[in-house]
Task: structure prediction
Amino acid sequence: MATVKFQVLSGSTNSSIYLRLSLGRGKTPRCKTGLFINSSDWSSVKGLPKQSSAANKNLSLDLNNLEIHILKEVNRANSVGTDIDKQWLETRVNVYFKRENESKIGDYIVDV
Result:
């Protein structure tokens, strides 16, 4: 079963939030979500922002919704036999935040 975890890897005031997708032993692609947070507002135990402000609560909701979206996409990809890697994960995150179009996803499929 796939699991999603969010991480902040730096200690700066404007730290990137990363999404790590665990698919099994040795298969854990990670990518930036494009969201940022002050590292002191991040709970490394929960893997989400501390619930100390309205902005952090909204960010938590965004991350939870992203997690649901990614898990649905993983199930869809597994059902058709798509290989899940870092590029696949980055594309799905960008489509979720409307940085890329859904129709552009087909451009990444390459016949070998």
Q: What stands out?
A: The helical segments are 54-80, 86-96. The mean pLDDT is 90. The first helix runs from residue 54 to 80. The longest strand covers residues 15-22.
